[in-house]
Amino acid sequence: MGRIRLSAMSPAIRVKPRKELRRTRRERAHQCWGHLLAAPLWPMHGANLGTLLRTCDAVGACLAVPPFRWVDEALARGNTLRRPGCVHRIGNPTDWLTTERAAGSHIVGVELADEAVRLADLPAARRRTVIVLGHESTGIPPDALDLLDLAVEIPMIGTGHSLNVAVAGSLALYKLAGLL
């Protein structure tokens, strides 16, 4: 890889070669970090799960998925990593969130709510944190909303109602991981 010059006035930007990137990253896949979990518990589209799994790998998080039969196939199809990612298969989403909360996990939901904090104001996770992602059309169900410790809103200027699960989850994961 060489240097890229954006204009005659700008300094050259050095693109890191793959060999250098490999040296600076972890040597092998993890078994389970367990500190940060992305939980798309009511997914609408399987393609989003593979994308979210890749983001989980990038930030050192795990993915918690619901017991739907099509989820495993969607993850296998969408996983572009060389190794399998860290995936926790859960039972009933609301029961699982209740158990996580009772165990001391911080439960954060991406949802449009009056009490929501803006994504920019969300601090990095300091303890085990579950980021709950709802259905793209209907959001997080009311019984699960009651289990949230915090709601986070991703501000939007355009006309869309919300971002898709993979994009919203990726933004929240990077922020919670302290990488933004």
TrEMBL record:
Keyword Methyltransferase: yes
Single GO biological process annotation from the record: methylation
GO MF: methyltransferase activity
Keywords: Methyltransferase, Transferase
Family matches, as Pfam families: SpoU_methylase
Domain tRNA/rRNA methyltransferase SpoU type, chain residue ranges per copy: 45-174
Protein name (database record): TrmH family RNA methyltransferase
